[in-house]
Design a protein that fits this description.
Helix content is 47%, strand content 11%. By secondary structure, the chain is an alpha/beta fold. A hairpin with a 2-residue loop joins strand 17 and strand 18. Helix 9 packs parallel to helix 10 and helix 13 crosses helix 29. The relative contact order is 0.09.
Length: 1016
């Protein structure tokens, strides 16, 4: 057999190219063009083209045919590109298969685990499809699979499966086999009726057809399968490689062993699915070969890494039968093997990304050097790409990104969510502000209108659902008078057409919902210059999306009608799976990707060689990933059925680790101590390597300095404490007006007063703001005002009073009719308050009618001082003139009530200031009055609907609260409004609650920690 090996330490593609050129006559340039090379990935084919050019020394070449024969493990198998396949029936389209299986899954009774929603049916169909493919691809009776009808093959494996589940097994296994039998029979009948093959079955038949063709007529020109099956392959592919290796002009080139192995150790490797060479051992066994049959492909092979590094890694990863080699002490040998190998341990994922970016950046300082990050963690890949842009380097993730996460697909998903959630502010604005959204308008005008509508109508509690609720909320706000907002709403309504009633509409065909969804999205993406389709599906990211949606359009008619409310979840599930090119780094930039830096996934990195590689995210559950036997069979059942162990996936990625770390002159093994906020466990290979080295007189992997570089990158040269902000604008810029609420704010936090009244910064309300105390307080105040105006100064009697409260509370609630959340939350509490108010008002008016009852009355007075006049302003909730002529000042609180000492100390200035204003005649109808009592009414609407807290008119030392208020107003005015005192942030932390609206502007977290005065 023509079996060859390339040492793991040698650059595979360069050695492959040099060996093939050496085997062909140099004076026949067409000889190379007649050769055929089968490689595991298209990227490997591209890399081999470059390797041929380097090996040829720059002279022109007619390159051989190169075909990607994907690794052919179960999850990596791809449609084959071999010539002898035209006679086979076509394979079913993947999305059509999933739609048909989803329709079948929906017929499974719920009591037997059937799906509850179309989305669950779609996901269950995906699991069924994976099982059918795995059974076909891993089938060892190739003759039966090649010649048997689809129904007969299904019956054969179903009988085998049912033999694993005798009557004594758990009932759920009996149900599983019943479900699988029904699905497999229906599915194969559907395929036969349409003259199609299942995807996995056709792949196996294609391999068998090619093997038969080469068996009958071996290739006449050199045909080499290189680097295929290093991590294991399926039986049909192993047979194809066996036939090729037996052909006179055929050859199979594999990656070599780290060192020669005894037969017993090689057998132990074959039996250990997590070993990096287990797949290759099983492949050779299937081909009837042993490691001794592997001949050198090219001698001498170019050497990249330290010669003994491969042996070191192989020893560290050996199975238990090879552990006696660990007892051999040779520190000098292994110390030399560590040349170029280092370990990077970062604190978290972000520091790891920054450190890796610095390593890649450093590598290209050497002319001609190439560097790569290899990782299965796409989040780390994106982070590194972003960090590289900081250094002026553009590098996209060559492994791509999920199709559903591309900008156009994300826009499509957001449109569905917006409609499904009734145009709630968050999903609505996510659509309106998406870069692809324009609604047929100029993009700038669209964004301006969306922002104005957001500030005026969407901030605060959630509007009523639907476009009608949105229009009502806009009409009730300042945005209702803006023409551009009206145009935006009209454009939104026109673009959506009938795609606005997902939550309430009756069942519709999924294909119709998809057409309506896409039509709405394309209309929203349109601009005056371009139709929406050209914007949505443009570029390298848009093309795979357009193809996927086209296939989905053809597949969805196989589904039964669904409830429109289920459509967004089904649509998102249908977008999952495919991969699109990742253009996050180059999107919107004129830079091309850097030619000497790559970010690769494990599949893309196979057979590639670089001067420096960083193996990132070497942690358990990341690299290697967690194993799962799937929902259909347990591990023992899989083994008895003949399917590979789930742990075989670990062996495949272990091979990726071994060969990537062995080849590059410089290899950095990277991990993070925490990822996603949780501690990580280093990959098992790192642990074994550390233990092996520790047994060699305490050797350790050299530490990479990159983590320290990353930490120092943003660290200041020396700590620079931030002082407490204390702006001091000139007196001319300070306000000459002070409201009661401003006085409380100025006492507690002068900086917040400065931001509010000098800088005139007002906080925006949250989107979909929780219904809270402010809304409730406004409701209570409105209801109380309406009630008191309705009953006048006397007591009209219980029935009339109850009617007045009903009218007042209804009017207060009516103001929030476009905010159903407020109505639902606070209506019951307002009703509870009514009983307390009626009882209390009857008691207060029992001595006789009030002389006056002033409600929600505003008052102002001039505080005349030598430095100028200050206008003091308040709006009193309620001022009662009692029968004896004295005045009672009442304030309603829906939260906590200030204590007596707070009033005396000036921390709660509202009632005292209102008392002073009243005695100054500031309120119309209160001229010359004297305050005899201050009251707080606490109105919660809870179990205790309300309570009254009387404070009297004077502090404990006898000083009237009105006089205390004037003195403090004079102090505030002379110090901050007329004087030059700085507006310090939180000078008295105990007086101000944390979480103020202006805390982020004051940068409190930066200066308060650890300072004696910064207790807040």
């Amino acid at each position: 057999m023509n079996l060859y090996a390339i040492p793991p330490s040698a650059p595979f593609l360069e050695t492959l190219a040099a060996g093939l050129l050496a085997r062909l006559p140099s004076d026949e340039p067409e000889a190379l063009a007649r050769a055929t090379l089968l490689l595991p990935t298209r990227r490997a084919a591209r890399g081999l083209r470059e390797a041929f050019l380097r090996a040829a020394g720059g002279r022109a070449l007619l390159l051989p045919r190169m075909r990607a024969l994907a690794g052919l493990s179960t999850e990596e198998a791809d449609e084959l590109a071999l010539p002898d396949l035209l006679d086979l029936p076509p394979a079913v389209a993947p999305l059509t298969r999933q739609a048909v299986l989803a329709a079948m899954a929906q017929r499974i009774p719920r009591r037997h685990g059937g799906p509850a929603t179309p989305e669950q049916a779609w996901l269950l169909a995906g699991e069924l499809a994976r099982l059918f493919d795995e059974i076909a691809l891993e089938e060892r009776d190739l003759d039966m699979l090649e010649h048997a009808a689809a129904e007969d093959f299904a019956e054969a494996w179903l009988a085998r499966l049912e033999g694993l589940v005798p009557d004594r097994h758990a009932a759920h296994w009996q149900i599983t086999t019943t479900v699988l039998r029904a699905a497999a029979i229906d599915w194969n009948r559907w395929l036969t009726e349409r003259g199609l093959l299942d995807i996995g079955a056709r792949r196996v038949k294609a391999l068998a057809a090619q093997a038969a063709a080469w068996r009958d007529a071996p290739p006449e020109h050199p045909t080499v399968a290189a680097g295929i099956g290093a991590g294991g392959t399926i039986p049909a592919a192993a047979e194809l490689l066996r036939v090729l290796a037996a052909a006179p002009h055929g050859a199979v080139v594999l990656q070599g062993l780290p060192e020669p192995m005894a037969a017993t150790l090689w057998e132990a490797v074959r039996q250990a699915p997590t070993h990096p060479l287990a797949g290759q051992a099983r492949l050779l066994a299937a081909m009837g070969a042993v490691p001794a049959d592997l001949r050198p492909w090219h001698d001498p092979a170019p050497v990249g890494a330290a010669p003994d590094r491969t042996v070191l890694l192989g020893r560290a990863l050996t199975p238990a039968e090879g552990l006696p080699a660990w007892t051999e002490r040779d520190p000098s040998r292994w110390s030399a093997a560590l040349t170029g190998l280092s370990r990077l341990v970062a604190a978290d994922a972000q520091q790891e990304a920054a450190a890796i970016a610095l390593l890649l950046r450093e590598s290209i300082e050497t002319p001609g050097h190439r560097a790569a990050l290899i990782t299965p963690d796409r989040d780390l890949a994106r982070r590194v790409s972003a960090e590289l842009s900081r250094h002026g380097i553009t590098a996209d993730d060559s492994a791509g990104e999920p199709l559903a996460e591309t900008p156009a697909a994300a826009f499509l998903r957001l449109v569905g969510r917006m409609v499904a959630e009734g145009f709630a502010p968050v999903p609505l604005l996510a659509v309106l502000k998406h870069p692809l959204c324009a609604g047929g308008m100029d993009r700038t005008a669209w964004v301006v209108a969306a922002r104005r509508m957001e500030r005026a109508a969407l901030r605060g509690p959630r509007p009523a659902p639907g476009l009608a609720g949105l229009r009502a909320s806009v009409a009730a706000s300042k945005a209702g008078a803006l023409d551009e907002v009206a145009r935006l709403l009209d454009a939104l309504d026109g673009a959506l057409g009938g795609f606005t009633t997902l939550p309430d509409a009756s069942a519709l065909p999924a294909a119709d919902l998809l057409r309506a969804h896409l039509a709405a999205a394309e209309a929203l993406a349109a601009t005056p210059d371009l139709p929406g389709g050209l914007r949505l599906y443009a570029g390298e990211e848009g093309e795979p999306l357009a193809r996927h949606l086209h296939d989905l359009t053809e597949a969805l008619p196989s589904l039964p009608p669904i409830a429109p409310a289920d459509w967004p979840d089904l649509f998102e599930a249908a977008l999952a799976g495919p991969v699109a090119p990742s253009l996050r780094a180059t999107r919107g930039r004129g830079d091309a990707a850097h030619p000497r830096i790559a970010i690769l996934g494990l599949l893309e990195a196979r057979l590639q060689s670089f001067d420096r590689v960083v193996l990132g995210a070497l942690e358990e559950t990341a690299w290697p990933q967690a194993t799962d036997p799937g929902p259909w069979m347990s591990r023992p059942m899989r083994a008895a059925f003949g399917l590979p162990e789930p742990e075989a996936r670990i062996g495949r990625v272990a091979a990726d680790f071994l060969f990537a770390a062995a080849t590059a002159p410089q290899a950095i093994l990277s991990s993070a101590a925490r990822r996603g906020g949780s501690p990580t466990v280093p990959a098992r290979w790192l642990v074994r390597l550390d233990i092996f080295l520790a047994g060699q007189d305490g050797l350790v992997l050299p530490a990479s300095p990159a983590a320290a570089w990353a930490a120092a990158l943003d660290a200041p040269d020396a700590p620079m404490p931030i002082p407490r902000p204390a702006p001091a604008p000139p007196p001319a810029l300070r306000p000459r007006r002070l409201t009661v609420s401003d006085a409380a704010l100025l006492i507690a936090d002068p900086y917040a007063f400065y931001a509010k009244r000098v800088l005139r910064l007002n906080p925006l309300k949250d989107l979909e703001e929780e219904v809270g105390a402010i809304d409730y307080g406004m409701l209570v105040h409105a209801a109380m005002a309406g009630f008191l105006r309705g009953i006048g100064t006397g007591w009209p009697g219980q029935p009339a009073a109850e009617a007045a409260w009903a009218r007042a509370s209804a009017a207060a609630l009516d103001a929030y009719r476009d905010r159903p959340g407020i109505l639902a939350f606070w209506m019951p509490r307002l009703a509870n308050i009514g009983g307390f108010v009626l009882e209390e008002e009857a008691r207060l008016r029992a001595p006789g009618p009030l002389q006056a009852c002033l409600v929600e009355v505003a008052g102002t007075a001039q505080l005349r001082l030598p430095g100028g006049d200050i206008e003091i302003e308040a709006r009193a909730d309620r001022l009662d003139q009692l029968p004896d002529g004295g005045w009672r000042v009442v304030d309603y609180k829906t939260g906590s009530v200030p204590r007596m000492k707070d009033l005396a100390a000036g921390g709660a200035p509202q009632l005292p200031i209102e008392a002073w204003l009243l005695e100054q005649g500031a309120f119309a109808g209160s001229e010359g009055g004297v305050v005899t009592d201050l009251l707080y009414w606490r109105l919660t609407g809870g179990e205790q609907a309300g309570e009254v807290k009387g404070l009297g008119a004077a502090a404990e030392d006898g000083t009237p609260f009105a006089a205390l208020a004037r003195d403090r107003l004079v102090d505030l005015a002379e110090k901050w409004l007329l004087g030059a005192a700085p507006f310090a942030s939180r000078p008295h932390p105990a007086r101000s609650a944390a979480g103020g609206d202006y805390d982020h502007l004051a940068r409190i977290e930066e200066w308060s920690a650890g300072t004696p005065e910064g207790n807040g």
